[in-house]
């Protein structure tokens, strides 16, 4: 069962979840880069307002073809209670997402706001079948908390696809 794990991460937390998910369930990792190249301060001064407005970043890769996969996992950092502009753009960059099972996840300082709902809505608008959403806090991740809730979701989807 082919799993594609797509994520944006500026400071490493969302990447950590993505890599741990890949270690547990397998799957290819796709790191989305925001070409704005934010500094730490720039993320707050320029990035957060853009996230709040739901803007799309210029990203690399510009096209993300998931047509060869069965399941797509998409992860975003929370910026100002929203997905990042890079993730907004990544959803637009997906090719072959129609009808595909998907799960979404985010990492935050503890106030994820409407991030998971927003990602779910955008993916659904692209025709994905979003089957679950999991929120992680930086504190939990630092303490090595398991990512079972997310890995189990993917495993469950794999089971359903086999039968
Ligand atoms: C610009 C900016 C805005 C943020 N806004 C929020 C927020 O609204 N709520 C929250 O709980 N954490 C917020 N955070 C914390 C991040 O969501 C958290 O550190 C996340 O794990 C970062 O992911 P990354 O390490 O993959 O880049 C913000 C961080 C940045 C840089």
From TrEMBL:
<feature type="domain" description="Flavodoxin-like">
    <location>
        <begin position="3"/>
        <end position="158"/>
    </location>
</feature>
<dbReference type="Pfam" id="PF12682">
    <property type="entry name" value="Flavodoxin_4"/>
</dbReference>
<dbReference type="GO" id="GO:0009055">
    <property type="term" value="F:electron transfer activity"/>
</dbReference>
<dbReference type="InterPro" id="IPR001226">
    <property type="entry name" value="Flavodoxin_CS"/>
</dbReference>
<dbReference type="InterPro" id="IPR008254">
    <property type="entry name" value="Flavodoxin/NO_synth"/>
</dbReference>
<dbReference type="InterPro" id="IPR029039">
    <property type="entry name" value="Flavoprotein-like_sf"/>
</dbReference>
<dbReference type="GO" id="GO:0010181">
    <property type="term" value="F:FMN binding"/>
</dbReference>
<protein>
    <submittedName>
        <fullName>Flavodoxin</fullName>
    </submittedName>
</protein>
